[in-house]
Amino acid sequence: MESKLPAAKWRTLWLAILLYYVSGINEAQCDILPVRPIHHNNTALRQVLEALTAKYPNITRLYSIGKSYQGKSLWVIEITKDPGKHLPGKPELKYVANMHGNEVVGRELLLLLADHLCSNYGRDQRITKLVDTTRIHLLPSMNPDGWESSHVGCTGIKGRFNANGVDLNRNFPDPYDGQTNELQPETQAIMNWIHREPFVLSANLHGGTLVVNYPFDNLPSELKRSTTRVYYSSPDDDIFVNIAKLYSKTHPTMHNGNPRCPIQREEKFPDGITNGAAWYPISGGMQDYNYYKTNCFEITLELGCCKYPPARYLSPYWRANREALLKYIELVHNTGIRGFVFDEKGRPIEGAKIIIENRAKKVKTYKDGDYWRLLVPGNYIIRVAKRKYKNSKKTITVDPDAIAYANFTLVRKRSKNFSRRRLAAKMNPVAQPLKSTNNVSFHKVVTHRDKLRLSAKSPGKSASTVLGPFIITSLVCFVLVALLK
After folding, report:
1. What is the pLDDT of residues 87-113, one digit of tens each?
2. pLDDT digits (tens, 9 = 90+) for 109-135
3. Using 50, 70 and 90 to split pLDDT, how confident is the model at 177?
4. Is there a contact between 217 and 112 (Cβ–Cβ < 8 Å)?
């Protein structure tokens, strides 16, 4: 006869199995959080982000901005009080890492930063204030496909490109070189993202040397032909230098400017920073696109000589960069001016231009009428412009380490003939002298081009521009054939 277990013993056995299963889950969660300084594959990366959002639901949100070439989600963790929406007046910042798949340090630093912000919220006054007052977006991996084909090693390019063989930091539309190859899904996802959210400040985390790189990365062809390196400044060069120095000088060694990387042992960067074009020009870079096309100021952080170091070196990387990453976030609260633009009835005005006298770069108000404009300390004349409204102007003083507040009220023009007057202006254009624009570039030859590429709409090629050379060439050929007959 078969022996049968009593019902009570069966219940005990099933309870033991259940407890074993639950304890296994808890152990797995313990392995995920707190985040350890190890290399996380794409699955583990997602699990870390999911664990953080599950443990800290009041200050986090996990969302995808799109997919990679192979269909992997590009995960972003948002960290802020009341996540999920833009709150009027709350500045937004993003960190993007692993754009080159084999440059992995930034990927792990952003996971550690996310854990640091979440676990210290409500416990550390500084972190709590930062999370309460800032909407922080962290994209640990922009190139998960490239990561999967990369491997531990300080140099080399295996895994650098996306799965379609494209360098994503050469893939953005460029004012000088246009679009040299088809937009990749990762690039398009970033473009959609930064046009959707009102980012104020950003950093792109790379590896291969130790320096902060700031715009511009590219320069016009007449300057590319130079045999010497050319410093090609943006209209806000002073601001970029300041924020680059803040990061490099907070880092324990970056500011020394002497990375001594094996491939470029003699390479030196005064103060640990460099203008991108002066270092080496590239076309289609992400930081330039941010500056040309949005309100966002972005720099590139080269975190160290080794692109994919062994895991035991990740803790020193975190200790070296933790304070600099936090101070960089705080810049949105202590640099430049911020405020709102309203109409006469107190309603927010979206798309109003914030114009700083003698600076070509303009920013626009977001849908709630709020704006941010990074500026170094000094006195500024600020003009706010919006079609169908009268301009408003103020003089604002920006003090060191303190943000200035400036709200504007725009009065609507009373004329009813806006469209008629605009049409007449187009039909009867009047030549206007080009006003001088200071601080646009160190090179007078491109002053006018800088003004054009920083306008709201990039200058496109007209039909006459495209067909002109073709018509002229055809006429020349016709004349030559007629003479030879």
Report:
1. 999 999 999 999 999 999 999 999 999
2. 999 999 999 999 999 999 999 999 999
3. confident
4. no
In the predicted structure, residue 443 carries a pLDDT above the cut 50? no
337-410 has CATH 3.30.460.10 classification = no
Q: What pLDDT score does 360 carry?
A: 95
Catalytic (active-site) positions:
302
Say what the pLDDT of residue 341 is. 98
Which of 297, 289, 291 has its CA nearest to residue 201? 297
> In angstroms, how far is CA 204 from the centroid of its own chain?
6
* Architecture label for domain 42-333: 3-Layer(aba) Sandwich (3.40)
**Residue 139 CB contacts under 8 Å (≥ 6 apart), including other chains:** 65, 74, 75, 76, 94, 95, 96, 97, 110
Which band of pLDDT confidence, cut at 50, 70 and 90, is reported for residue 69? very high
State yes or no: pLDDT of 60 exceeds 50: yes
Residue boundaries of the structural domains of the chain: 42-333, 337-410
Q: Residue 91 has which token pair? A: 């500045």
**Ramachandran angles phi, psi of 20, nearest 5°:** -65, -45
List of residues 6+ apart from 345 with CB closer than 8 A: none
Q: For residue 95, how many C-alpha atoms fall within 13 Å in the half-sphere facing its CB?
A: 26
pLDDT of residue 180: 75
Do residues 51 and 33 touch, judged by C-beta distance below 8 A? yes
* Tokens standing for residue 184: 């990749």
CA geometry: angle 357, 361, 365, nearest 5 deg: 95
CA distances from 439 to 290, 436, 443 (A): 19, 10, 10
Average pLDDT for the chain: 85
Residues 274, 89: Cα–Cα separation, whole Å = 32
Q: Which two tokens stand for residue 42?
A: 């794409």
Q: In the chain, what percentage of residues exceed pLDDT 70? A: 79
pLDDT of residue 6: 62
